[in-house]
Specification:
- The protein is an alpha/beta fold and about 425 residues long.
- It has helices at about 5-10, 10-20, 25-30, 50-60, 80-90, 110-120, 140-145, 160-175, 195-210, 235, 270-280, 285-300, 300-325, 345-350, 355-365, 390-420, and strands at about 40, 105, 125-130, 150-155, 180-185, 210-215, 245-250, 265, 330-335, 340-345, 365-370, 370, 380-385.
- Strand 5 (about 180-185), helix 9 (about 195-210) and strand 6 (about 210-215) form a beta-alpha-beta unit.
- The radius of gyration is 22 Å and the shape is globular.
């Protein structure tokens, strides 16, 4: 098709979306991810405990109610928003009834919530700030429709006020007005937790600069290690959620249910809620599923038991990966939460010819990882390894394949050095 003919098929906006860049590793990922023999450490899913959730959803019935075939409330079924408010208040908040059903909007996935928030809080060319390394999908979720520009906050303390002030000024100088700070807490790809005093400081600074803070807390209940500072949701940090702070949570990660597409926005800002709900029609969750989810989340005895098992499964899988990395002298960041180990294959990566070359070597051996560049990492050679995406035998098989490739690359490098 000629360029002129192609331009006549879709609008300039459509062209921009179709040509929106995706991470370079995705080409290799899409080529290999569908093969049954591939161990997929690039997929951010918890498949370790999904059987428990599947059984519970079966017990909840089909969710069909009188009126299930009719249009629903765009903000979500009242029964689900009531169940979510109690659930979030107990498991993420202070347990004092601060999370109200009226503060919640139910949409079909956390990605949809982020898309809507970005569209409602930014104008084209505005800047969205986020600490790196970051979730590689943020660029798509926050910028593809909104036209905003993603700015990565780098450094050892990326949410410190000096870093924020510097990024704010640099963005303004480029003509990109900072409007939003997005924080994944717990973090993707590191599994790290942001201390509550940092979140308070960021929210206050953002308010002083007419900015919003989005807390992406999709791994809020997948915390499997304690630390000197424990994870605290934004729902527990403030007695009343500030007007410029908005929390995103869903079932995809904490309840092994990325295929169900059910998440929510928690905000006390009525103007933001109204704006998001105006287009919630396009992001609704089916009514029967909302009733099933409400029944599941309302059974707190089951939730308590599930969370204990799920966290134990995550810890066991993480320990397996960390033991293998230590045995092979690979540097890594021990996570407190989520599904990932952030590990450093820099020397092997360099010998392989760079991150993408290393990714392709791994894929050819039957294992997939996410490279650091996709996550806007400062240093080359870091990779995200998801330890929850497969069974224990496949986890061990995938690790064996990784180190098999590493050994081959190192041997080839040594051979070249000897030849020289």
């Amino acid at each position: 098709m000629q360029e002129s003919e192609r331009q006549s098929v879709v609008s300039a906006r459509g062209m921009g979306i179709s040509e929106f860049p995706r991470p370079e590793f995705m080409e290799t990922y899409l080529e290999h991810s569908g093969k049954k023999t591939v161990v997929n450490f690039a997929m951010a899913e918890n498949r370790l405990s999904k059987g428990i959730v599947m059984k519970k959803l079966h017990e909840a019935g089909d969710g069909l109610q009188e009126g299930s075939l009719s249009y629903a409330d765009y903000s979500g079924e009242p029964v689900l928003r009531e169940a979510l408010s109690v659930f979030m208040d107990k498991y993420m908040g202070k347990g004092e009834g601060a999370v109200r059903p009226s503060d919640l909007t139910v949409l079909n996935g956390a990605g949809s919530v982020l898309v809507q928030l970005a569209y409602c809080l930014t104008d084209p060319t505005d800047a969205v700030l986020s600490p790196g390394p970051l979730y590689y999908g943020f660029n798509r979720d926050l910028c593809a429709y909104s036209g905003a520009v993603l700015v990565t906050l780098n450094g050892r303390d990326p949410l410190s006020l000096p870093v924020l002030k510097k990024a704010f000024k640099e963005a303004k100088d480029k003509g990109n007005t900072p409007r939003v700070i997005v924080i994944a807490n717990p973090g993707n790809p590191t599994g790290a937790v942001v201390e509550q005093f940092v979140l308070r400081s960021v929210a206050q600074w953002a308010a002083e600069h007419n900015m919003h803070v989005i807390l992406d807390e999709v791994y809020a209940l997948s915390v499997f290690r304690s630390s000197p500072y424990a994870f605290r949701s934004g729902a527990a940090i403030w007695d009343t959620l500030p007007q410029n702070v908005h929390i995103v949570w869903g079932l995809s990660k904490d309840f092994c249910a990325s295929g169900l597409r059910c998440a929510c926005l928690y905000t006390r800002n009525e103007q933001v809620s109204t704006a998001v709900r105006k287009f919630a029609y396009f992001y609704q969750v089916s009514r029967p599923l909302q009733y099933q989810v409400a029944a599941m989340l309302s059974d707190h005895a089951w939730v308590d038991s599930y969370l204990q098992t799920m966290r134990g499964d995550l810890l066991a899988a993480c320990n397996t990966v960390e033991e293998a990395l230590r045995s092979n002298d690979v540097e890594f960041m021990p996570p407190q939460a989520a599904f990932f180990v952030w590990c450093n294959f820099a020397s092997t990566c360099k010998a392989a010819g760079g991150e993408l070359a290393f990714i392709k070597r791994l894929a050819a051996e039957g294992v997939l990882l996410v490279n650091g560049k996709a996550c806007n990492a400062e240093e080359e050679g870091w990779f995200r390894l998801c330890f929850a995406s497969c069974t224990t035998p496949d986890l061990k098989l995938g690790l064996e394949r990784i180190f098999k490739v590493c050994n081959r690359i190192d041997e080839d490098s040594d051979a070249k050095l000897c030849w020289v």
